[in-house]
Design brief:
By secondary structure, the protein is of the alpha/beta class. The protein has helices at residues 2-5, 49-62, 88-91, 97-102, 107-124, 129-137, 167-188, 199-213, 220-226, 240-243, 246-261, 276-280, 299-317, 348-357, 377-381, 394-408, 413-420; strands spanning 9-15, 27-31, 39-42, 67-71, 140-144, 154-155, 234-235, 238-239, 272-273, 288-293, 328-332, 363-369, 385-388, 427-428, 434-435. Helix 7 packs antiparallel against helix 13.
Length: 437
């Protein structure tokens, strides 16, 4: 117990004794500092990606490291199910009656069986009730549901607060946040506009920058109202009428006004302010597990939320002192569609920025996906830890072997092919040949 209770040592799994060799199981510990160089978890459905991700999140929280967990699939609210007592009544509200019936049991009987299974299983992996209680009691768990009132709402657009940065030193950081903000608004409105050449993107960005340079906060209604008559006469070397004629500006304003007028849009402006500091720590300094639940949203709405949150995270990060230790962990449970190799959705830029720059500030990024082809090669190459589960297709296997070969150089491809692709369900390949519960 003392080994993995050491601060900075994340307990992942135990090794499986090699058949016929009589080797006792060993703990597989992971240095939390390694997460500042980021990590990817890759494996088909059922290989244990989410289980490993939740395990890493729990280890971070037990070390008082706050977590932002972005949850497109809807699995991460399970983080809140912390039952140190492991009593049947803890499990009974979560029992599926059909599962109980399939085992010819009543709900209470099946709950008792589940409680005993979990009690034995956790004990086998040295997870004590005291450790579970410490996680539950020392962490504030919150489920945020942007665009919905089911959980804690997030006021993502009600107040576009000007960052508290000096333009003379923080112009790049502020403009990156503006790009993320404008990209997310346009994708939500169904408008495809390039940040470099799209007139819609350039106009909105300049309006936001004009206000923020004056230290003024914005909201979406004010931004839309500025489009027909912007607070400047030129964009670049051209006057505003030549660059973006009045009729076209009015069309853009009407499209964005349609968002404001839609019956369900008010939920996007209800709830807690989108403030990274408040997502990470409670008012008394308690580290938080902020689960941003996105399963109820469309693909465009998910892009909108992820881009906004990560852009805000980057701005917050750049105001912090440097650190070689892991200070914040950001997790995405399924990144399919957010950082693809052949397209540039709005969320891709902040993800790549975090992968390249977050290490200096002690911010770790953990990405999970079913297929390696879902990830841009830049994301793969900037991840210092790869957790590989079962892969379904030969193309996925070839992509991983090629990537591992390019990173390691003198790697034994045949041995890797045997070790990595001989994995069974819920196993993690490492030099220890480790399997998780």
């Amino acid at each position: 117990m003392e080994t993995y209770e050491k601060l900075g040592s994340f307990y992942l799994v135990k090794t499986v004794a090699m058949e016929g060799q009589g080797q006792p199981p060993e703990l597989v510990l992971y240095d939390s500092k390694d997460l500042t160089t980021h990590a990817v978890i890759i494996g088909m459905t059922g290989s244990g990606k989410t289980g490993l991700g939740i395990g890493l999140l729990e280890e971070a929280l037990m070390d008082q490291i706050p977590v932002i967990a972005i949850d497109p699939k809807g699995d991460l609210p399970n983080l809140l199910l912390q039952f140190p007592e492991l009593q049947p009544e803890n499990f009974e509200p979560w029992i599926n009656p059909q599962d109980a019936a399939a085992h010819a049991m009543t709900g209470p009987q099946f709950a008792a069986r589940q409680a005993e299974t979990w009690r034995r299983g956790l004990a086998d992996w040295d997870q004590t009730p005291e450790r579970i209680a410490r996680l539950r009691d020392n962490t504030e768990f919150r489920i945020y549901t942007p665009g919905s009132s089911i959980g804690i709402g997030i006021n993502v657009l009600g107040s576009m607060k000007a960052p508290e940065l000096d333009w003379s030193v923080g112009a790049e950081t502020i403009r990156d946040e503006i790009e993320g903000l404008v990209s997310s608004i346009l994708v939500l409105a169904g408008i495809d506009s390039d940040p470099v050449s799209g007139p819609e993107h350039i106009l909105l960005s300049m309006i936001v920058e004009t206000w923020w340079r004056q230290g003024k906060d914005l909201d979406l209604a004010t931004l839309v109202g500025q489009i027909p008559k912007p607070p400047f006469r030129k964009l670049g070397v051209f006057d505003i009428e030549s660059f973006f004629p009045a009729d076209d500006r009015l069309d853009l304003a009407m499209k964005l006004n349609g968002l404001l007028a839609s019956p369900g849009f008010s939920t996007w402006m209800d709830g807690a302010e989108l403030d990274i500091q408040n997502l990470l720590w409670a008012g008394d300094g308690t580290p938080q597990a902020a689960v941003v639940y996105l399963a109820h949203l469309s693909d465009e709405e998910r892009q909108f939320v992820v881009t906004l949150i990560l852009s805000k995270l980057i701005t917050w990060m750049r105001t912090q002192p440097g650190s070689g230790d892991l200070r914040v962990l950001t997790y995405m449970d399924e990144v399919f569609g957010f950082v693809p190799p052949t397209a540039n959705p709005p969320a891709k830029r902040p993800i790549l920025t975090l992968l390249k720059q977050a290490r200096a500030f002690g911010v770790g990024l953990l990405l999970s996906t079913q297929n390696p082809v879902d990830l841009d090669y830049k994301a793969m190459s900037n991840a210092g830890t790869w957790c590989i589960g079962r892969l379904q297709t030969e193309r996925d296997k070839a992509r991983i072997l090629e990537a591992l070969t390019s990173v390691s150089g003198d790697v034994d491809v045949a041995q890797l092919d045997h070790q990595v692709f001989g994995l069974s369900g819920r196993c993690r390949h490492s030099e220890h040949r480790a399997c998780g519960p």
